[in-house]
């Protein structure tokens, strides 16, 4: 019995020791560890009065055309993180985004919320949208943004292995428009926190975005008046990209 008990004790001890690593979740490093790769960005480190508007989860048959009209009215270019299944449904909107001088970027094919997504599954999700955009538009996007802004080693590696740069957003520039705040609150959040190099997170897909659209209409002239210009993600983060920022 003594030996059995000893064995059992050793077994339990070993379990305690090894189980946590066996069932451990995805590895997440500090933000600066990822930034050091040169392929992962939250915002630009710059003193230039440049910011980027980014819109996720479209294209949407009602919101996206309205937003494109608005951006045209203000002569501003933005970056659209599109979901592949919606590009499949509304390819003409992907064309319109690019034709009007905006940047298109990859936000997976199915937009599944899954922090524990495997690297292989995510690579399929990214690649399916890349192939779709390439067949529709003739090029692959530069940037990828993970669903929900989740980032783990697996998620970052999946994107980098596919030659995608990863763009999250400035943590102080998420007015949570998807949760349905009034436009005054969205606009105030952006305007109060704005600093050069900010990447602003908004949504044109996923539901009714009237308040987002009204907020965009309000903040653009105010930010221009403060001396800011609007850049696409590539213009903001790859300043050697030879295309001028829109004013
Ligand atoms: Zn999203």
Automatic annotation (TrEMBL):
It comes from the Bacteria. Residues 49-231 form the NodB homology domain. Keywords: Hydrolase, Metal-binding. This is Peptidoglycan/xylan/chitin deacetylase (PgdA/CDA1 family).
């Amino acid at each position: 019995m003594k030996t059995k008990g000893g064995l059992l004790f050793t077994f339990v001890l070993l379990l305690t020791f090894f189980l946590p690593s066996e069932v451990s979740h995805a590895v997440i490093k500090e933000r600066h560890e990822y930034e050091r790769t040169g392929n992962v960005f939250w915002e630009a480190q710059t003193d230039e009065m440049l910011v980027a508007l980014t819109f996720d989860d479209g294209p949407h048959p009602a919101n996206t055309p309205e937003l494109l009209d608005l951006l045209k009215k203000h002569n501003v270019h933005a970056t659209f993180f599109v979901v592949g299944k919606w590009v499949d449904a509304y390819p003409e909107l992907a064309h319109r985004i690019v034709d009007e001088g905006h940047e298109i970027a990859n936000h997976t094919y199915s937009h599944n919320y899954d922090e524990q997504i495997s690297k292989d599954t995510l690579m399929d999700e990214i690649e399916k949208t890349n192939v779709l955009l390439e067949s529709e538009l003739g090029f692959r996007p530069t940037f990828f943004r993970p669903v929900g802004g989740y980032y783990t080693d697996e998620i970052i590696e999946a994107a980098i292995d596919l030659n995608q740069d990863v763009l999250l957003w400035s943590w102080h520039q998420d007015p949570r428009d998807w949760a349905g705040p009034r436009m005054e609150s969205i606009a105030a959040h952006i305007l109060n926190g704005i600093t050069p190099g900010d990447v602003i997170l908004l949504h044109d897909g996923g539901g009714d975005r009237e308040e987002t659209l009204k907020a965009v209409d309000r903040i653009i002239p105010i930010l221009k008046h403060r001396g800011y210009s609007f850049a696409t993600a590539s213009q903001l983060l790859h300043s050697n990209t030879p295309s001028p920022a829109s004013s």
